């Protein structure tokens, strides 16, 4: 029993020392992620305002705003992980290989997202339009990548 307590104390001391050693990098990485979130959110709001002034469809403006926000957050997240000292090259390779495998595995459901992008970009109908599909009539309330909701 005393050996196990010594091992546990040694582990706690080791973890404490590593936390002390890496605390500046962890704090900097946290600040980078927070800055990325704030920057992404403000750019997203700016895009929505600019699109509203130019009278661009709300669905298209939300799509652009959320896509840009996600892209900015990912960039800042990669910067933060790199700041901690983690090499991100294997992660990028895994993401690439996973994307290839995922696209081959889910071609059918992914085509729905392709259709959603086509609807958002070509805008055959907009939010608040009335549609009749297979005898069912409804008002378009949401157009997103995966689905279009009628009420």
Keywords:
151 residues; mainly alpha; three-stranded antiparallel sheet
Topology:
Elements: H1 2-53, H2 58-84, H3 89-105, H4 107-122, E1 130-133, E2 136-143, E3 148-150
Antiparallel strand pairs: 1-2, 2-3
Helix pairs in contact: 1-2
Describe this structure in words.
The chain is mainly alpha-helical and 151 residues long. Helix content is 74%, strand content 10%. Strands 1-2-3 form a 3-stranded antiparallel beta sheet, covered by helices on one side. It is elongated, with a radius of gyration of 24 Å.
The helix tally amounts to 4
Amino-to-carboxy terminus distance: 67 Å
As an assembly, this protein is: single chain
Helix content: over 70%
Short overview:
With 151 residues, the protein is mainly α. The chain has helices at residues 2-53, 58-84, 89-105, 107-122; strands at 130-133, 136-143, 148-150.
